[in-house]
Write a structure and sequence with these properties.
heterodimer, A: 509 residues, Aspartate Aminotransferase, domain 2, seven-stranded mixed sheet, 15 helices, B: alpha/beta, Aspartate Aminotransferase, domain 1, 2 domains, four-stranded antiparallel sheet, globular
């Protein structure tokens, strides 16, 4: 963290005449100015004039107000903030990859095509599915791709289906995606064990009945295009009836989409293809450790069964093997197949966030099949260790077995008027990034903790100690928590005014 | 495994504390028949040295070119050294979306500054933290226009947009029943005014045109905006080469309602097409319909200025199926590169870079037209890309150029422009490189001739 006061906006420091990027002398004749007067750039109102050291210092100071994975445990549940290996960055920056051009002919990009093909093979084996597209830019783009595949499949069978079933514990992108693809979203109730409820659920307070899985399937039957389900779900719990759910959806002719946001709990341990899932995405920025970059870029490949393969976004990478003599190493060549008459088209301008795919393959080959499984198991051990140590100190609203993350809430602390937000903010004072808060929404005041496999016992213990201290402070001096954070660069920020009277850019005074 | 904290003593201590003998016991929530009962059929763990060696070998299987004249949406520009070193700071690249503003002010303030600069470049009021890329930005802009123009369901798209951008839009529109995407033809390198007039009726929500378009031609936005607004539609300008904003007037000042496109040119390599940097900028009146993350300025408890994610009531995590888009992540790190590039360049640097691009492209075009087998196809205003017709054997020319370490322009034959080549020259192309290109092409011509 910075020792200085907050860094001011760069615009307040601009001094006309300064420059941080200079150019060689022009070695061709000056251009003829053919622009009509109206189209000539009239100037800039904000773009600052600064030198290189000024700009570097500006960004360096700003960076010190950020918390990164290398600062310490980053227990954002569902976000999977694991270590970002430096090798992955180095490989992605190799000029052979970084300078390759998306419109170059196939013969010039054999390395890229082989890399994409190889990554697809890894993801096929990990998911137990038959085909993969690497084009979607992020998880949400992967979801949309998957739902569009489902839609294309139904249309190819002459079926117009209207409804997608989604558990109420789902991430907001699921219903947003289904709506974007033109479907009506129907919520499925969660049961007391945190998984999809097969029976209808009556709210003990309001007396309202929320429909469970079985009655929804019975009601919507042939209107069901599919179901979107996160497994393990957003509570970090494995949907143990996943096979029954898939069977029931298949029985009415629907397809099952699995949101693979939590696939890092399954890699090497269990495969969605074996559960009956038809199509899914994986977040490579979670499971395969490509860096989050303060919000992106991500990568959200989609894996699917053979029946959906014809609809995959185009182009599709194809491997061709030249015939060789006995005992010789076969020679492979790769090409883009654009001739895909049933394709849903493109979901990215080119072939996806290639630089992220390079990092993901580097992660995969570093770990190997055995390392991937070890990582999964360690992530589960770490989450369960935190659960064990904090259970009772914090309320555990759902007690089903935890996979890679555990969800507590503020029920115990709320008695002292200390709430989830206070606990989260106080953690900042203890030097940790807070967990994911108030999600999933099916748990009131949720604190969703995901330590990942990267953490050793020391760091886990330090986090547990901080959480216990906060619980103690709640009893002894709750106001301390209302004030938190006090050691961060800023205190709590006024988000209400920010939304009500938005200031979305700097304007010259 | 070098990334995993496994050590026998520590593993045991964790398992003992939990009360299990093996990690596998913790899988009790997964029905036994669903567990994978064999190891993954994948290669084993590899050392850093081995992985690097293997992937270097793979990278070398791509052809590398000392000289490049290929753009078509992915531009090779100079990248100041300071950018890589700054973005390599873990505080930037390992951090998550800034949900906890107290310890994310670095990312939030950077995005606020980035938003300010994008608004400045485009001449519009509000932008977001970025979108995936140029093609998906076009789709988001078109869908936003339909939301704003409630009773209008048709979007016109100029055939002058990158064919991949148009395909991304078609895929996105396919699932929206009742929405229609219609192409407007080109004439003489720009959107055909008579075809536009014929298709522009009161069901049209918006019209998308390139600025410049895929063929490099600069569309006249001020004329188009009058035509489009006269029918009550919105004008959306699409820019693939954002360096043009150092040379051409901001689209917002020419009547554009939404400016969108690709900003990879600011500090990013071509990276096989991604990760790139989609942008969308809109008028203040439409700010609550913009997709994606937006950062706003506010105060903390002690009255100090700070920044937060805002206008979240539009987004999927609040609105679920009523959200403006399903988008969740953005291109954060790529936006950081662009922001730093633009702050280094400043107004003078940006204008200087743009001017060099125009000069190099004009020189390249002049030199090519001096060769016998190159013909002009239009006389439109262009920035750093233009199209010429080639009357020789392009495959032979391309092979000869590759052999000389030159990546030439794009053959547009597969995109409906037979024998037309799309050339690009930027500040990184030297006069020497251009002369070398001309020399090889002249040699090819004389061999064939």
């Amino acid at each position: 963290m910075s020792l200085r006061s907050r860094e001011s906006l760069i615009f307040d420091r601009s001094v006309p005449g300064k420059i941080g990027l200079d150019l060689p002398k022009l070695d061709v004749p000056e251009a003829k100015d053919l622009r009509p007067a109206k189209l000539k750039r009239s100037g800039f109102d904000a773009l600052p004039s600064c030198t290189e050291p000024e700009v570097i210092r500006h960004f360096t100071r700003l960076s010190k107000d950020n918390y990164g994975v290398d600062d310490g445990l980053y227990p954002l549940g569902s976000c999977t903030m694991k270590h970002n290996p430096r090798l992955n960055e180095k490989v992605a920056a190799l000029p052979g990859f970084a300078e390759s051009h998306p419109m170059a002919g196939d013969s010039l990009i054999q390395g890229n095509l082989e890399l994409l093909y190889t990554l697809q093979e890894w993801l096929k084996e990990v998911t137990g599915l038959d085909a993969v597209t690497l084009q979607p830019s992020a998880g949400a783009a992967g979801e949309l791709t998957g739902v569009l595949l489902i839609r294309a499949y139904h249309l190819s069978h002459g079926r117009k289906r209207k409804v997608i079933l989604i558990p109420d514990a789902a991430h907001g992108t699921n219903p947003a995606t289904a709506a974007m693809a033109g479907y009506e979203v129907v919520d499925i109730a969660s049961g007391a064990d945190g998984t999809v409820s097969f029976e209808d659920v009556t709210d003990p307070v309001s007396g309202k009945v929320k429909q469970g899985f079985l009655s929804l399937v019975a009601e919507y039957k042939e209107d069901i295009a599919g179901l979107m389900i996160t497994n393990p779900n957003t509570l970090g719990i494995f949907e143990y009836r996943i096979k029954d759910i898939c069977d029931a959806i298949h029985a009415v002719g629907g397809l099952v989409y699995m949101d693979g946001a939590n696939m890092n709990a399954l890699v090497g341990v269990a495969r969605p293809g074996d559960f009956g899932v038809d199509v899914m995405h994986m977040n490579l920025h979670k499971t395969m450790s490509t860096p989050h970059g303060g919000g992106g870029p991500g990568a959200g490949p989609v894996a699917c069964r053979k029946v959906l393969e014809p609809f995959l976004p185009r182009p599709v990478v194809v491997r061709e093997t030249a015939k060789v003599g006995e005992g010789e190493v076969p020679h492979h060549t790769y090409r883009w197949d654009w001739d895909r008459p049933h394709s849903i088209g493109k979901v990215h301008t080119y072939f996806g966030n290639f630089g992220m795919l390079v990092r993901a393959l580097t992660y995969c080959t570093s770990h190997g099949g055995d390392g991937l499984r070890t990582a999964t198991l360690r992530a589960i051990v770490n989450a369960n260790y935190i659960r064990k140590e904090l259970e009772g100190v914090y309320h555990l609203p759902v007690t089903s077995p935890s996979m890679h993350e555990v969800v507590f809430n503020d029920a115990i602390q709320a008695k002292k008027d200390v709430h989830t937000l206070d606990i989260a903010k106080r953690l900042i004072d203890y030097g940790f990034h807070p967990p994911t808060v108030y999600f999933p929404m099916v748990v009131s005041g949720a604190l969703m903790i995901e330590p990942t496999e990267s953490e050793g016992k020391d760091e886990l213990d330090a986090f547990i100690h901080a959480m216990k201290e906060i619980a103690r402070e709640t009893e002894e001096n709750p106001d301390l928590l209302h004030q938190a954070p006090v050691t961060a660069p800023l205190r709590r920020l006024d988000e209400t005014t920010a939304a009500r009277k938005p200031i979305l850019r700097w304007v010259k005074a | 495994m070098r990334y995993l904290p496994s050590a026998p003593g520590e593993d045991r201590a964790l398992l003992d504390a939990i009360g299990v003998k093996t990690p596998e016991e913790l899988l009790k929530g997964v029905p036994a028949e669903l567990l994978l009962n064999r190891p993954l059929d994948l290669p084993p763990t590899s050392s850093e040295l081995e992985v690097l060696r293997d992937l270097e070998r793979l990278a070398e299987k791509n052809a590398r070119f000392r000289t490049r004249f290929l753009g078509a949406g992915a531009y090779a520009h100079f990248i100041p050294t300071a950018i890589d070193m700054q973005v390599g700071r873990q505080e930037w690249f390992t951090a998550y979306t800034p949900y906890q503003p107290e310890i994310s002010q670095g990312t939030l303030q950077h995005i606020f500054e980035y938003q300010t600069i994008i608004c400045d470049l485009t001449g519009l009021d509000v932008t977001n933290a970025s979108l995936y890329d140029g093609g998906t930005a076009c789709l988001e802009a078109a869908l936003m226009a339909v939301r704003v123009q409630k009773k209008r369901s048709k979007v016109l798209v100029s055939a002058g947009l990158h064919p991949h951008y148009r395909e991304v839009m078609r895929s996105g529109f396919a699932s929206h029943e009742g929405l229609e995407l219609v192409e407007v033809a080109l004439n003489d390198g720009v959107t055909d005014p008579s075809d536009l007039a014929a298709k522009l009726d009161d069901t049209v929500a918006a019209v998308l045109v390139g600025y410049p378009n895929f063929l490099g031609s600069v569309e006249n936005l001020s004329v188009l905006s009058e035509t489009v607004h006269a029918k009550g539609a919105l004008l959306i300008s699409v820019t693939m080469e954002s360096l043009v904003f150092g040379w051409l007037e901001a689209p917002g000042k020419l009547g554009t309602d939404i400016a969108c496109g690709e900003a990879m040119s600011f500090g990013n390599k071509t990276t096989f097409g991604g990760p790139f940097l989609g942008f969308i900028a809109v008028k203040d009146a439409h700010k609550r319909e913009i997709p994606g993350r937006v950062v706003g300025q506010t105060k903390d408890l002690e009255g100090r200025t700070g920044f937060v994610l805002t206008l979240t009531a539009r987004e999927q995590h609040i609105r679920r199926d009523k959200a403006t888009s399903n988008i969740c992540s953005n291109q954060g790190l790529i936006a950081l590169r662009a922001n730093m590039f633009l702050q280094l360049a400043g107004p003078e640097g940006l204008a200087g870079l743009a001017a060099q691009n125009v000069a190099k492209a004009q020189y390249l075009r002049t030199r090519l037209l001096e060769l016998p087998d190159w013909k002009a196809v239009n006389d439109r205003l262009f920035f750093n890309e233009f199209v010429l017709e080639y009357t020789g054997d392009w495959k032979a020319a391309e092979t000869a150029l590759h052999a000389e370490g030159i990546l030439p322009g794009l053959d547009l034959t597969p995109y409906g422009f037979p024998n037309q080549i799309l050339w690009c020259a930027t500040e990184i192309n030297t006069r020497h490189q251009i002369e070398h290109l001309i020399e090889v092409l002249a040699r090819v011509a004389s061999v064939v001739g």
